[in-house]
Fold this sequence. Notes:
Layout: H1 3-22, H2 33-52, E1 89-92, E2 120-121, E3 137-144, E4 148-155, E5 168-174, E6 183-188, E7 200-204, E8 229-233, E9 244-249, E10 255-261, E11 271-278, H3 289-292, H4 295-298, E12 316-318, E13 322-324, E14 372-380, E15 393-394, E16 399-404, E17 412-417, E18 423-429, E19 432-438, E20 450-454, E21 459-460, E22 465-467
Parallel strand pairs: 14-21, 14-22
Antiparallel strand pairs: 1-3, 2-12, 3-4, 4-10, 5-6, 5-11, 6-7, 7-8, 9-10, 11-12, 11-13, 14-15, 14-18, 16-17, 16-19, 19-20
Helix pairs in contact: 1-2
Amino acid sequence: xxxxxxxxxxxxxxxxxxxxxxxxxxxxxxxxxxxxxxxxxxxxxxxxxxxxxxxxxxxxxxxxxxxxxxxxxxxxxxxxxxxxxxxxxxxxxxxxxxxxxxxxxxxxxxxxxxxxxxxxxxxxxxxxxxxxxxxxxxxxxxxxxxxxxxxxxxxxxxxxxxxxxxxxxxxxxxxxxxxxxxxxxxxxxxxxxxxxxxxxxxxxxxxxxxxxxxxxxxxxxxxxxxxxxxxxxxxxxxxxxxxxxxxxxxxxxxxxxxxxxxxxxxxxxxxxxxxxxxxxxxxxxxxxxxxxxxxxxxxxxxxxxxxxxxxxxxxxxxxxxxxxxxxxxxxxxxxxxxxxxxxxxxxxxxxxxxxxxxxxxxxxxxxxxxxxxxxxxxxxxxxxxxxxxxxxxxxxxxxxxxxxxxxxxxxxxxxxxxxxxxxxxxxxxxxxxxxxxxxxxxxxxxxxxxxxxxxxxxxxxxxxxxxxx
Length: 469
């Protein structure tokens, strides 16, 4: 047997195959059978490659020393959001930036409730001496036009060193109003001042397990897969590259704006919504965060807490949830305590007197005053320590009255009703002193009323009244 001949034939086949893959074959000379066999194989491989290569863009599969092995797709957009044309529903949040100081240990003015998945933590973990103004949410607004749903998240300010926003900003929707988020929209920095899909992702929960066994309430450890379906990934791997967009809006305050096609949620006109600013945890599959971390692991931003300081859940801010398209009854899961409805509060009219008029000095220029929020719980103490803890019950459906001035107070400003967990709040009220008075639930409450001062833009969210048997 002529082994040398077979070896030469085999090497010739290998070399010819390599030439077929990387070069254009030339017309051979001669007519020996081995060369004819090689030519036939070259033709077959070329035909096979032609079947696998899209006829519209064969150049994208050419291998060159400078081109990437996988071509970068170019997105073609047919529909881009415009400007917001319709009024928005507003949602307010606690503002930490009014009192925060860089390089000093900070504490938020309120608004942080680990047990109910509410966080006011725009600070670094442990030391809490770095304040991130682009993670401090002031307020958010939501509203549609005929095609798009727009959400705008207003932030305290820009990151000081770079004068940019560097966080991740999310909108969470609960369409069936059961306390479990159904959709999560994300805008990830850096973003430009024009609409773009880069950095935009949309998740959906396909098996309705966001929030664990008790939605909104802390019940770790998390065993659920939460937002398990990535619906939109920066316009890629989708049949609609125009489904969701985001942009940065420079202003005072700066804002992130998210727009998505209203049809993505089947034009649902009644749902619950809330927003997030995140940098420290940044894990959509860990929602709700108070199911993924224990209270001890998460830490607390309040010095009075045994879990102080913040630890695993840090550099995060979010809002409570409010209704879109319907008036709340007060017992909706995860509802802002007492409501976030935009309303006009009529100030107390001054009493007429006979005191002679005295000229006053011209008013000095003052900083703008922002409305504040006030809230807390009317709870049933279950472990007899007169402190609201995990597992304590609440008085639902109880009337809470807000009066102007320190207790016993004067003019009634507003009334509200506690939710299922005894949670209440008054929102968008002018800065000032107030008296909070819960109705008698048939048992003695401690205290029976409370005098509170609300500062500009502040949310005081720890005014609690407990039944301590």
